[in-house]
Write a structure and sequence with these properties.
The complex is a heterodimer of chains A (151) and B (406). Chain A is an alpha+beta fold and 151 residues long. Helices cover 39% and strands 21% of the residues of chain A. The chains are: A alpha+beta (151), B alpha/beta (406).
């Protein structure tokens, strides 16, 4: 397998694609948004139970490619217990990670496991896949029931 | 006439380039086809030797440009079996051709309670203009169903043709499934009810001989860029008596006889529908593309591609976990498929790294995806310059995909 391909489809990503975490509607969810990427047919709904200023629980339902599914799955693990501001900062770091020029060293803070998506920056066509879950989560946290699109 | 694909390949400069360091395997001609040297030369030749605006200047250059455009119009007319070249209208692409009919013919002939009949396998370009027309006029869009192989259910279509039906609009060949529709049969049914038929021929003209007179349809739309011509030029063919009765689509220069602030009188067809400066070099390039495929022989191309499609169908059927979407008895060019456990988008990325270009997504035919219960497919589409080696590269690439997602 080529190194680019191995870099993109890391085993963590393939694992989260096969067994997505938090792929469910959390009990007591009080925020929701839908996202879609019409070009490739990815569709996702993100549900949040937002309590005491933090993401108490989060889940997602939808279908998409390995990158978008794994990204949503890893995202739900990463944002649990975080405030909306912390989620926003994390998104900014994640966005920098997947859109920075190959070879550069973007400031990505403490992204932890989410760093496995660094390979996406070699594939500009796949950035929308990696960020669909995040855009949808941000829309959900902003409040009312909305649909976001990465097109 | 025998057809030599290796010789044809040498006519297309891009086919000797590389993608990701690998020889380019281009299997996305249904989205847009590559261009032979003669088309590229024809386009640059216009700019080098005979470029000026058309239908305007009294000087020689303008005359030559006008002649080049009108010569292309004539060759296109004979290419599709049109009775007269004035029935050939230059537009940007098949999408614009269909919109022209929806706006100009539709808004004059369709009213509340009327119906436009399409099929379940249409490209969005043959759905949305009619939806817009229906929304505006209070007409209703009816959809003839297809079976599990992606074939039109002709008897169901027949039931849907009623006294309220004003137009049947149907693809000649489905871009997402490859199904070839029985246009003559559809026209026969529509005729019995006095209903005109528009055919979206975008996916048909690169693969088979088209004769609008034999088909019996009333409008035929296609794009130049899928026919190895430049992007930005397409054709609407329509029966002269229908076109003459239609109001202009776009207003402006070149489509008028005289203009005062009180009243404008329009040119006759085709110029009535060609406001503004056209894509002069593009039209000449499309003429060259038509000369090219005519020179190779459409029947020879059809026979060659049919054999290659059968080879590809067999090769893909042998890939574990692969399901072909669209298995009509009469098919052209298209191998649409899904692979167990792998999203088409991931297939597309991995194939790309192998130098294999396929389309992934809904192919501007979301209702088709819904019909088959898939969010998207991967689609390999073949053209005259593809070979068994291209199909083999696709199959080898799919083995890589399965390896990654093992």
């Amino acid at each position: 397998m080529s190194s680019e391909l191995r870099e993109l489809y890391q085993s963590v990503i393939l694992d989260h694609n096969r067994k997505p975490r938090n792929a469910r509607v959390p009990e007591g969810a009080n925020r929701r948004a839908d996202g879609d990427n019409p070009l490739c047919g990815d569709k996702i709904s993100v549900y949040v139970r937002f309590e005491d200023g933090v993401v108490a629980d989060v889940g997602f339902v939808g279908e998409g490619c390995a990158i978008s599914t794994a990204s949503a799955s890893l995202m739900t693990e990463a944002v649990k217990g975080r405030s909306a501001e912390e989620v926003e900062r994390m998104f900014e770091h994640f966005h920098a990670l997947v859109t920075s020029n190959p070879g550069s060293e973007p400031a990505v803070g403490d992204l932890g496991k989410l760093r496995v998506f660094a390979g996406v920056r070699e594939f500009p066509m796949r950035v929308k896949c990696a960020t669909l879950g995040w855009h949808t989560l941000r829309a959900a946290l902003e409040g009312s029931h909305v649909t976001v699109s990465t097109e | 006439m025998s057809f030599d694909p290796e010789r044809a390949r040498r006519d297309f400069p891009i086919l000797s380039t590389r993608a990701h360091g690998k020889p380019l395997v281009f299997l996305d001609s249904a989205a847009s086809a590559q261009k032979p040297r003669c088309v590229i030369d024809a386009v640059s030749g216009v700019y080098e030797t005979c470029y000026a605006n058309v239908e305007r200047g009294v000087y020689e250059l303008s005359l030559r440009a006008t002649e080049a455009v009108e010569s292309a119009r004539q060759r296109i007319a004979s290419f599709i079996g049109a009775g007269e070249s004035r029935e050939v209208i230059f537009v940007r692409n098949a999408t614009e051709a269909i919109n022209l009919v929806a706006w100009s013919w539709g808004r004059r002939n369709v009213g509340p309670g009327d119906e436009i009949l399409i099929t379940h396998m249409e490209h969005h370009a043959n759905i949305v203009p009619w939806q817009m027309l229906c929304e505006e006029t209070g007409a209703r869009l009816r959809v003839a169903p297809i079976d599990d192989r992606g074939q039109l259910l002709l008897e169901e279509l027949e039931k849907l043709v009623t006294p309220r039906t004003k137009l049947v609009a149907v693809a000649h060949v489905s871009n997402a499934l490859g199904t070839i529709n029985p246009i003559e049969e559809i026209v026969r049914i529509a005729r019995e009810h006095g209903v005109p038929v528009l055919v979206d021929g975008a996916q048909a003209v690169p693969h088979q001989r088209v004769d609008v007179a034999a088909l019996g349809c009333d409008f035929y739309a296609f794009s130049g860029h899928k026919l190895f011509g430049p992007s930005g030029v397409g054709v609407l063919w329509g029966r002269a008596e229908l076109l003459e009765a239609m109001p202009p689509f776009l207003g402006g220069g070149a489509m008028i006889l005289s203009v005062t602030f009180e009243k404008t009188t329009y040119q006759g067809i085709p110029h009535k529908f060609e406001a503004g400066t056209p894509d002069i070099a593009g039209i000449v390039g499309l003429g060259a593309a038509i000369d090219y495929v005519t020179g190779l022989g459409l029947d020879a191309i059809t026979a060659y591609e049919r054999e290659l499609l059968a080879y590809g169908t067999q090769a893909l059927s042998d890939v574990p976990g692969l399901r072909l979407i669209g298995t009509a008895e009469r098919k052209a060019s298209v191998l649409s498929f899904v692979l167990d456990g792998v999203h088409p988008h991931d297939i597309g990325t991995i194939l790309d790294l192998e130098g294999v270009a396929v389309r992934t997504g809904h192919h501007c035919a979301q209702p088709v995806m819904d019909r088959f219960g898939v969010p998207a497919t991967a689609r390999a589409s073949i053209a005259l310059y593809n070979t068994r080696a291209d199909v083999d590269a696709l199959v080898a690439g799919l083995a890589k995909v399965r390896e990654v997602f093992a």
